[in-house]
Write a structure and sequence with these properties.
By secondary structure, the chain is an alpha/beta fold. It contains 9 helices and 15 strands. The protein has a 6-stranded parallel β-sheet with strand order 12-11-10-13-14-15, with helices on both faces. Helix 4 packs across helix 8 and helix 6 crosses helix 7. It starts with a helix and ends with a helix.
């Protein structure tokens, strides 16, 4: 969770007056632990937020970050895991990783991170533009910019993933950013606990909806927002903010009411717990079909990963949901890392 951009910013904000360095992966060749656009923050007294490798590069990066702080210059570092003399060779990944380290200074407005914080607090998506400069560039003259999605000065469709934007002689790394994913769990029974816990670990915001007195207790969902309203009492705002939902009230009528409320909104993923014959009953009660939803409707919920305990079911649902939210297809890792 602490590797999400929002969590990095929450870690940084209370200590924003201290000296920090932002490290960002600008390019990779071959395989690498993380991809271009991944970020990490280094504090002047050795604190870190985030991760850019499996943990082996960070100690060396800290040394470069301290140098960047002292000189107030941009540092550019390349790790070549195919070179036996390189610090990253022991990682064994075989890839080349380029990293830019930029001090956060009053003169460069802390690289626009305050604007990022404000955008996320307002649920706003957009693009973070980081000019690609030479090592030794005066960091006081360096300026990074956050562009809200609606006013980006480049075709937004070109940057679904991090990429390089060229404007004249200037190249910039464009990193698409969005607030954390929002998961709604409709039903606060004991088997919803591992779903909420795993989603929190992924860095998602979790809301549990259940009006029943004995369900959705705060002690069972310590990191979730709890809404004690029935589906019929929910406003459009309750559901419109969600990216995905899992319906698991273990009650036909409550599940039908939840699906009817959800169906009016374009969620990317909706899962209904239970076997196919139960799904058909719930949909019939709601006056819906499997084609009524604008996103993926998974019922029975999740992937066939095996296992029957709540934690295994939670894993199967969130694995499928994660793939949908990230536009992934189900493949073996060796198929995509060749």
């Amino acid at each position: 969770m602490e590797h999400q951009i929002e969590d990095l910013l929450e870690h940084w904000l209370p200590l924003a007056d201290d000296a920090w360095v932002l490290a960002v992966i600008t390019a990779i060749q071959g395989s690498a632990y993380r991809k271009p656009g991944a970020m990490m923050l280094f504090h002047e007294f050795g604190q870190e937020a985030g991760i850019l490798s499996g943990g082996c590069l960070e100690s060396d990066l800290r040394r470069h970050a301290q140098h960047a702080m002292q000189t107030k210059q941009v540092m550019c570092v390349t790790y070549d895991a195919s070179d036996e003399s390189d610090a990253s060779y022991r990682l064994g990944c075989g890839g080349i990783v380029d990293i830019m380290l930029i001090p956060l200074l009053k003169e460069n407005h802390d690289l626009g991170l305050i604007e990022l914080v404000q955008a996320f607090r307002h649920g706003q998506s957009g693009f973070y533009q980081l000019p690609l400069v030479k090592a030794g560039t005066d960091a006081r003259q360096y300026h990074a910019t956050f562009h809200p999605e609606a006013v980006a000065p480049f075709p937004a469709s070109d940057f679904v993933h991090t990429g390089v934007f060229t404007q004249g002689e200037i190249q910039s790394l464009i990193v698409p950013l969005r607030p954390r994913f929002q998961l709604g769990i409709f039903g606060g029974g004991i088997d919803a606990k591992p779903i909420a816990a795993m989603a929190h670990t992924l860095g998602w915001q979790v809301t549990v909806f259940d009006s029943r007195t004995a369900y959705a207790r705060a002690a069972d969902f310590p990191h979730a927002h709890i809404v004690k309203l029935s589906a019929g009492e929910l406003t459009a705002n309750h559901i419109a903010q969600l990216d995905c939902a899992v319906v698991m009230n273990h009650n036909l009528g409550l599940d039908a009411a939840a699906l009817k409320a959800i169906q009016a909104h374009p969620l990317a993923y909706v899962a209904l717990l239970g076997p196919a014959h139960r799904r058909d009953k719930v949909l019939g009660m709601a006056g819906l079909s499997v084609d009524s939803f604008s996103g993926v409707f998974s019922a029975p919920a999740g992937l066939a990963l095996g296992g029957e305990l709540p934690s295994a079911i939670a894993l199967s649902i969130l694995a499928q949901c994660h793939g949908v939210l990230h536009g992934a297809t189900l493949k073996h890792l060796d198929e995509i890392m060749r």
